[in-house]
Specification:
Blueprint lengths: L3 H25 L4 H19 L6 H25 L6 H9 L4 H20 L1 H7 L7 H29 L19 H19 L7 H13 L2 H4 L3 H4 L2 H8 L12
């Protein structure tokens, strides 16, 4: 069941969180901290939804457990990865394109925008947590797809971290492990995580929450994910062009022959 009051309560919580992040970014002159906040926004929304339940059911606690595991792992990884590196080049470009006044503009261009996106994408969490129907096979399918997503996302991050840690790999392209089958296993994993959560929402009657994973899929494929990262990588790293010819961009498949 769609509960507008609960959805708006989550929006209020996300707005407060976004403003807090924006205030922290001002003395740091680094809006990249929003990347660490991104997954935590979904955990915050889920907690807002479960707080509105008089007696949360098994599906609610299942979703809380899955979102907590996904959210904390991703936030910890991004925070560790970005520590000591200053503002990400993507945000440096946004900053340069929005001066003067970026310090204030970043409140809505960066922090407010991401809070709004997280609010819409969190719809499956609302549907699942607000459901009282018993758990069934569709919930199991959702958990299985979520697990596939976590393997690809966390596994891809771990393999890339190990690859970059070896000085011998400087300038090289990672094309082994999960990266042999897709150029973006972490994004594909995120895709599976959210469609898995949708299946759990669907099991509770939340067909209307498909807008959430659809928006996430669009962002991953066309906006801030694959499209953004590969915009000019072939020019900066010629070896990547050969990797593109051999390897699917998103959905895993055996590599093509050279």
């Amino acid at each position: 069941m769609f509960d507008l009051g609960l959805w708006l309560a989550a929006l209020a919580a996300l707005a407060v969180f976004a403003v807090a992040g924006w205030l922290l970014s001002l003395p740091l002159r680094n809006v990249s901290i929003v990347d660490s906040m991104w997954s935590l926004m979904f955990l915050l929304a889920a907690l807002a939804y479960v707080a509105g339940q008089a007696a949360p059911g098994p599906r609610a606690w299942l979703v809380i457990a899955l979102v907590t595991a996904w959210s904390l792992r991703l936030a910890a990884y991004i925070t560790w990865r970005n520590h000591g590196h200053g503002e990400d080049f993507r945000y440096q470009k946004i900053r340069a394109n929005n001066e003067p006044g970026f310090a204030f503009k970043s409140l809505y261009i960066v922090f407010g925008l991401q809070a709004g996106l997280a609010w819409v994408i969190s719809l499956p969490l609302l549907a699942a947590i607000n459901s009282t129907t018993p758990l069934g096979w569709l919930d199991a399918a959702g958990v299985a797809l979520w697990l596939v997503g976590m393997v690809f996302e966390a596994g891809g991050d771990w393999q890339l971290t190990r690859f970059k840690a070896d000085p011998a790999n400087r300038g090289e392209v990672l094309d082994t492990g999960l990266w042999r089958y897709t150029r973006h296993p972490n994004y594909f994993g995120d895709f599976c995580v959210w469609w898995g959560l949708f299946l759990i929402a669907l099991a509770g009657g939340g067909w209307w929450s498909a807008a959430g994973p659809l928006l996430m899929s669009f962002l991953l494929l066309k906006v801030s994910g694959v499209a953004l990262l590969e915009k000019d990588i072939g020019e900066r790293r010629p070896a990547y062009r050969d990797y593109v010819r051999r390897t699917n961009a998103f959905f895993p498949a055996p590599p093509r022959a050279d």
